[in-house]
Write a structure and sequence with these properties.
The structure holds two protein chains of two kinds.
Chain A (H helix, E strand, L loop, with lengths): L1 H5 L1 H15 L3 H26 L7 H17 L5 H22 L5 H21 L1 H4 L12 E2 L2 E2 L3 H24 L1 H11 L1 H6 L4 H27 L9 H14 L6 H15 L6 H16 L5 H22 L1
Antiparallel strand pairs in A: 1-2
Helix pairs in contact in A: 2-8, 3-8, 3-11, 3-12, 3-13, 4-5, 4-6, 4-11, 5-11, 8-9, 8-11, 9-11, 12-13
Chain B lengths: L1 H28 L6 H17 L5 H22 L9 H23 L16 E3 L2 E3 L1 H23 L1 H11 L1 H6 L4 H26 L6 H16 L4 H19 L6 H15 L14
Helix pairs in contact in B: 1-5, 1-8, 1-9, 1-10, 2-3, 2-4, 2-8, 2-9, 3-8, 5-6, 5-8, 6-8, 9-10, 9-11
The chains are: A mainly alpha, B mainly alpha.
């Protein structure tokens, strides 16, 4: 048993990488691709919200800026996907640092409102700056990315690429959460004054969290521009930011696995409710409020409960046998 | 020019009422209620339904909407918010966003996606002539009702025992308990008052802008901007902030139509960064 347990990680990675080529329904591939792109942002937001305790309702804004920048660079300037991808990542790092610097003193609801305001400003500009962004008609026909002359176009290849980025992000997040930086972030979240007394550089830690989450949102933006090839300002709305926030909070913030549970739950939950038509979002809203009221720590708690249930059952059985 | 000022002040009063809602909820529960704009929308739709039911007296409609919205507030506060512990800040924010989503989609299911307006003759009386400018009854009634609401609120909060108990609960939860006040009840009452006022603001908005399920976001965020400029813990500040936002919107809206929202959010962010307590807010020492 213990021998197999060692290889769980590798088995899961191989399964994930094989997934795009096994599933042959276009619909499911599209759904999983979208989920993967959202998941990268949610994992980044988790660094900010779950580990450092800073709320942002503006991730869709950064996502939008990154997607439009990458799209415009590729379409109008004729720069290749990978170069524009790197430019977008650098831009994302600067945006994150900028937001971090201007909001250093703000916490909780105030921070939430500033990030929301910045995201709404971004959306308004994307909508109104017609000469560059194309306004509400959107930015269309962005060229597809290539790797060594191989054009990534087929849905399964697109999903493969997103999966690779998700796995890389997961390992980066996992390593950071276990490193000195991860511990500093948690210390800042729990009590920033005590953390600064312990010699942790609070400003640096907060800025790192902002930068990291913005870079990951830009990764998604760059991927979105290249792989989907079309974008509209309406898409980068407040609802999308709220969706990312829900993925993190409902999944369980401050845990590596939380955003993944949240992303799976919300993506497949919303699909399952699709039959309700206009009632879909109503049930979704009720679900969000219900989770907030019943499990304020997120769905991770449910997983813990189930594990405890089984553990106590085993213990009980062991006691009966003895 | 005069017309512009009148429209600006009227729109601003509505933002001010929304801001007062934010302020009441913030003071009593230290919660930023992101569903505020959706409550405004609900108030507008309720008024339209009441008028559809042949209740056409302005004051009866105002009173009924106020009572119904207060009941909605009771359901929301006792059904959801009071169960989420205070220290789960982010979960509480998500819960308010979820409530907003429920209200919005309920409105779609009940009233559909079409934008609607109140009938023109809902506000009685004729146009006032004022130095050559005709002021439609909508505007002076909105202005009058807005001012009356604020005066009533101030009298209620500062001159009645009930309002004093509410203010004490807002000021210090455990002190209120020591004074023999049940703070939970007063938190709920403050919340109901806030939702009621926001609902009435929803009626006043409907002649100026159409009522649709999507209107919540714009009014909610601008109302919040007003509350921030005035200071979240100051009621007169909220009103002044609202009128400032309304005037800015109407003045600059003519020159930079699409970007006026960017300007308002920009002002809000700058105020938040440099003066997070607003211009009329009290300065508190940070609790360590």
């Amino acid at each position: 048993m213990s021998n197999i347990k060692k290889y769980y990680g590798i088995i899961i990675i191989i399964a994930l990488l094989a997934m795009p080529f096994v599933i042959n329904s276009y619909y499911w591939i599209r759904l999983l691709t979208t989920m993967g792109i959202y998941l990268i942002i949610a994992m980044g937001l988790n660094m900010l919200l779950g580990y450092t305790g800073l709320v942002s309702i503006g991730q869709a804004g950064i996502f939008g800026i990154a997607a439009y920048t990458a799209g415009l660079l590729m379409k109008n300037a004729g720069i290749s996907f990978w170069v524009s991808f790197i430019i977008v990542l650098i831009l994302g790092a600067f945006i994150g640092m900028f937001i971090g610097i201007i909001t250093l003193k703000l916490k909780q609801a105030y921070l939430a409102i500033v990030t929301l305001g910045l995201a709404l400003m971004t959306q308004t500009i994307l909508l109104n700056w017609r000469e560059v962004t194309g306004g509400f008609e959107g930015l269309l026909r962005v060229p597809k990315p290539t790797i060594f002359g191989f054009v990534i176009k087929a849905p399964s290849h697109v999903l493969f690429m997103v999966t690779v980025f998700c796995i890389i992000t997961f390992f980066i997040i996992q390593n950071i959460s276990k490193s000195k930086w991860g511990r500093s972030m948690r210390a800042v979240r729990d009590d920033d004054i005590a953390a600064s007394m312990m010699g942790i550089n609070v400003v640096k830690t907060k800025l790192l969290a902002f930068t990291l989450s913005a870079v990951l949102a830009s990764v998604s933006g760059g991927l979105y521009a290249g792989l989907y090839g079309a974008m509209f300002p309406d898409y980068f709305s407040m609802d999308l930011s709220v969706l990312f926030l829900c993925m993190v909070v409902l999944g369980g913030m401050g845990t590596v696995i939380g955003p993944i549970i949240g992303a799976l739950l919300i993506t497949f939950g919303l699909e399952a409710l699709r039959g309700l038509g206009e009632g879909q979002m109503l049930v979704y809203g009720i679900f969000i409020v219900a989770v907030c009221v019943l499990k304020p720590g997120g769905f991770v708690e449910v997983v813990g409960d189930i594990r405890n249930l089984f553990a106590s059952k085993k213990r009980r059985e062991a006691e009966e046998n003895a | 020019m005069l017309t512009v000022i009148i429209i600006g002040v009227t729109v601003g009063l509505i933002y001010g009422l929304v801001a007062i809602g934010y302020s009441l909820i913030w003071q009593s529960m230290s919660l930023v209620h992101f569903a505020q704009g959706d409550l405004l929308m609900l108030g507008g739709f309720l008024a339209i339904t009441l008028i559809g039911m042949k209740i056409s007296n302005l004051f009866v409609v105002l009173l009924l909407v106020f009572v119904m919205m207060a009941l909605v507030g009771l359901i929301i506060q006792r059904g959801a918010y009071c169960y989420i512990p205070q220290h789960r800040g982010t979960t509480r924010i998500i819960a308010t966003l979820g409530v907003g989503m429920i209200l919005r989609n309920m409105a779609v299911l009940i009233w559909g996606t079409r934008a609607r307006g109140l009938p023109d003759n809902f506000f009685p009386g004729g146009s006032l002539k004022f130095s050559g400018v005709a002021i439609r009854p909508v505007y002076y009634w909105s202005f009058f009702i807005g001012i009356m609401l604020v005066v009533a609120l101030v009298i209620f909060l500062y001159r009645t025992k009930f309002g004093m108990a509410m203010r004490l609960t807002a000021y210090n939860y455990s002190l209120a308990e020591l004074m023999g006040i049940n703070p939970g009840i007063y938190q709920t009452l403050a919340f109901m008052l806030a939702t009621g006022i926001t609902g009435v603001a929803g009626i006043l908005v409907s002649p100026i802008s159409f009522v649709s399920y999507r209107m919540g976001l714009a009014f909610g965020v601008k109302g919040f901007a007003a509350a921030i400029i005035g200071g979240l813990d100051s009621l007169p500040g909220a009103l002044i902030g609202g009128i400032t936002i309304g005037l800015i919107e109407v003045f600059f809206g003519r020159y930079i139509s699409g970007y006026v929202d960017v300007l308002i959010f920009g002002i809000m962010i700058i105020v938040l960064i440099f003066k997070p307590r607003g211009f009329f807010g009290k300065v508190h020492a940070e609790k360590i």
